[in-house]
Structures are given as structure tokens and as C-alpha cells.
Write a structure and sequence with these properties.
Layout lengths: L6 E7 L4 E4 L5 E14 L6 E13 H10 L6 E14 L6 E14 L36
Parallel strand pairs: 4-6
Antiparallel strand pairs: 1-3, 1-5, 2-3, 3-4, 5-6
């Protein structure tokens, strides 16, 4: 039997990407990503927003790319990754904590990146904004019948 753990999210950064080095000198970047769905309230008929916040984590080379870009709060991103759950105990209180994170495998900008990135972003050559879909002309010309 095959298994799949795949997440694809489109949203905006809730805070600047935070860079850390582990005790083993592995680079780790984390940030929150907000995704919002719009729906009609069945009781009032009014449109409402429901925003979910996702903890995104990148490691090693991907973390270095994100650090180099200096991605800032508000940046619209497409993120691909997998769901990860972990637990830890607070050393001060002894309380057990659980966290759900998206371990990022890939990302794409959803807007021109010069609008959102920090100082080091101009030299980045790995990712570019998602291009608009190609024009298909008259849709009737594409029908096979």
C-alpha cells in the first residue's frame, strides 16, 4: 500500500522568516503562513473569512535560500511540504507541548518578489514569481468536436 503526506498551501507570511542554527550547525528557518477561505454564513447570508495559521519550517539549503532572500511579513507564497507532528517538554514548567508543522520542500512567490523581499534578495536565482497562465485565445478553438 502506498502512503502520501503532501501539503500545498497558498497564503501570506504572518511574520518575517526567523533563522536559527541548531547545536549541530544545521540552518533552520521558520515562519507562519496565513491561509484564508471565504464562505457565506448560512444564518446571515454575509460573506465571512476563516483564516488558518500554519507553522512552516525549512532546513539546510532551502533555509539558506530563504535567509538570503530575507522574506518579510506579508509576502504571498505557495508552499509545498509535508505535515510533521512533534512534542517537547517545557524545561521551566515541565508542561508537555504539541506542535504541527509543515516541513517545506519547495516554494514559489505569488507576486513580484521585489515587492516583498529584504536586502539580499536581488542576487537570488532559484525561484521566480509564478507566471500567469498562457493565453489560450478563443476557448471554442480548443474543443475537439
Amino acid at each position: 500500500m502506498a502512503y502520501l503526506n503532501k501539503v500545498m498551501l497558498m497564503g501570506n507570511l504572518g511574520k518575517d522568516a526567523e533563522v536559527r542554527l541548531t547545536q549541530n550547525n544545521k540552518k533552520r528557518v521558520s515562519f507562519s503562513l496565513a491561509t484564508t477561505r471565504r464562505f457565506r454564513n448560512p444564518n446571515t447570508g454575509e460573506m465571512q473569512d476563516d483564516t488558518a495559521w500554519h507553522n512552516i519550517v525549512a532546513w539546510d539549503k532551502l533555509a539558506e535560500r530563504i535567509e538570503k532572500l530575507g522574506i518579510k511579513k506579508g509576502t504571498p507564497l505557495f508552499v509545498e511540504g509535508r505535515v510533521s507532528y512533534r512534542q517537547w517538554n517545557d524545561p521551566q514548567t515541565g508542561q508537555k507541548h504539541n506542535i504541527t508543522e509543515i516541513l517545506m520542500d519547495n516554494f514559489e512567490f505569488l507576486a513580484p518578489r521585489h515587492n516583498y523581499i529584504g536586502e539580499g534578495g536581488d542576487s537570488f536565482e532559484g525561484h521566480s514569481p509564478v507566471p500567469p497562465p498562457p493565453s489560450i485565445g478563443d476557448p471554442d478553438d480548443q474543443l475537439p468536436f
